[in-house]
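Worked example (supplementary).
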Amino acid sequence: MKGNVVVGQSGGPTAVINSSVAGVYAAAKKLGVNKVYGMVHGIEGFLEDKICDLDEYLADEAGIELLKRTPSAFLGSCRFKMPKIEGHEDVYEKVFEIMEKHDIECLFYCGGNDSMDTVKMLSDYAAAHNKSQRFVGVPKTIDNDLPITDHCPGYGSAAKYIATSMKEIIRDNASFGAQKPIVCIVEIMGRNAGWLTAAAALSRGSDCEGPDAIYLPEKVFDMDAFMEKVKELAAKKSSVVIAVSEGVHIADGRYVCELGREVAVDAFGHKQMSGTAVMLAQKVAEETGLKTRAIEFSTLQRAATHLASLTDINEAFQVGHDAVVAANEGKTGMMITLDRNGDDPYQCGTSAYDIHAIANVERKVPDEWITADGTNLTDDYVKYARPLIMGELLPLYVNGTPRHLVRK
Amino acid sequence: MKGNVVVGQSGGPTAVINSSVAGVYAAAKKLGVNKVYGMVHGIEGFLEDKICDLDEYLADEAGIELLKRTPSAFLGSCRFKMPKIEGHEDVYEKVFEIMEKHDIECLFYCGGNDSMDTVKMLSDYAAAHNKSQRFVGVPKTIDNDLPITDHCPGYGSAAKYIATSMKEIIRDNASFGAQKPIVCIVEIMGRNAGWLTAAAALSRGSDCEGPDAIYLPEKVFDMDAFMEKVKELAAKKSSVVIAVSEGVHIADGRYVCELGREVAVDAFGHKQMSGTAVMLAQKVAEETGLKTRAIEFSTLQRAATHLASLTDINEAFQVGHDAVVAANEGKTGMMITLDRNGDDPYQCGTSAYDIHAIANVERKVPDEWITADGTNLTDDYVKYARPLIMGELLPLYVNGTPRHLVRK
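After joint prediction of all chains, the assembly is encoded as:
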């Protein structure tokens, strides 16, 4: 590769999205690339020519190690959707103009569904206009909902956070067992796909029974059946812990958090999804008189890098690295996928896959991994997900908290 | 000591309350005590003769190491208040009867204010009725609100969790800086004392500016001043993060979470305190049109043993250990306190202190550690709290999550 490269981060951050930037940087430098630029706030910032030179942070290998331990998007993220090409050629030309200005030959973009659409649009435009620049997508999403790839970098660490926190909550909730039952409802992210909520099942083991029920958005939520289940559990257990996806909805399509109250709408007109656990806990308290608790894992499930999965960190690094290798081989309009080659021991390789088959497609939890009664996950799911949460990377603790790498 | 001993856990669990049980066990065994019993669900379970033999779990030192890494109350907790002696002599006689049945010479009780009252009542009863059994309190509370002792075991780990999570949230919230400001309100435990919320200030460092404002229950909450502060911050920053105690209240005494909505009351008639962050976030969104987020740290702040402070674990062990030493010297009606002997390097010893000066007394954050405008903590607070969050104890990871020790 003769020119320079640029890497950007887009969409909701994950605990390991920075490892992918580290992977891009390491591979490019190995190939002798002169400048590895970072887009400041994704393609939105890039369109305003906001970039940084990653040598400034990563030339010393200790910088790479710190970056791997830093949550959120080190470069800054954005939620910018490229407009359709027709009638907006100026936006596309602007991207290429800035790339040419900095002699950028390849653009790497870390993100989920929407971000892969950006890669698709840019590579389509390049193909249609006979431009030589290349575009490769680097998968990233805690939601684990990208197709083709076995799983998505970011998911393993979120799943490890969820499984670990769930174990801690289950122990905590059980401490008052001598009194009457306490019902704890834990709300987990995932509007359409239940992958994150499913990870609550990974808390199961010889020292933990796991949540008593898990409700995914893949199944219609039946309020009566839920209340029956809670009553049944509370009749035989002093501690009941239930995991629910923020995206659970009833038969008519309304989200559970919308029932019985007016749902706040933010300044952008989006429904504020949170409040499912609070709503269900209140309903249980009212109908049963039991003591209840509502817990929301909130943004910590994507930001808790102190508890990241080493497997996830390494794979996030790998997809960033292999995106550069693919681009160096002349590939464009591709996303790097993770391909599982074995389970025992777990092995995973990568390949480059046509972005058109990936952008804007959403993968849900397969029906056969949800138990027949719809309230738990099968062992096949656990077999799939367990390797993704394995291993730890020790944070660098300074003054009692993990040290992060921060852009100047 | 010729007889056996028993140890119990009471009140809300902490990340390190089990280390105190380990400390009691280790000290008693060193002294040649035959049986170290655990109360199953505190004094409430003990009154029903529910005990376990700790040899079953801790005779192998690996058991002690696992117990230190286990959140919540290993023995089970309770919220049982001893009745006043007059007219309830039968309850007291029952305690002594069970102690005699198992040849128990000393009783150790790990807990906060209410639990220290149990130690006081039992030792008072023993003194009044010429009984030889001895009672020593082992301090435990994430709230850090016990008097006399420099700080309380449990606080350091909760503070480490809060400081670490706050850093991760601040990074996450900053990722979308290119768009209009996002205001994130984080709700932290502590109904009357602001120690836990103050710990948000420990996120400050060369890689993190810390929360933009911190509101403690020690200061009256002024809604207009709060809204002004938010607007002022949002005018100059793209990411605003604010920590609030669940116990903040306005001038007439009403809690902020009670304003503008009906507060749910649980089956016991207690106000459900949570909802402060949600309420404030909604108010900010309505009045400013800014995007907001509400995060509640929930029970994870007391249960996240995977992120416990090593200093805290060691001190929790120490107070359990030294309670046995004190009882062996014939002391009773005492609580073990932590006495700071130095700051650089930090050093802390213990002593036994009259329980009557401690039970039912609540210590708040001193006024001089709160900044003049009431929205942050001074460096003196940081100097006090920093040593308490230092050090880590690696969890034993099994299948990707921390392994816990669980009672059969």
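Two points are worth noting when inspecting this output. Residues 155-174 of chain A form the longest helix (20 residues). The CA atoms of residues 7 and 108 of chain A lie 5 Å apart.
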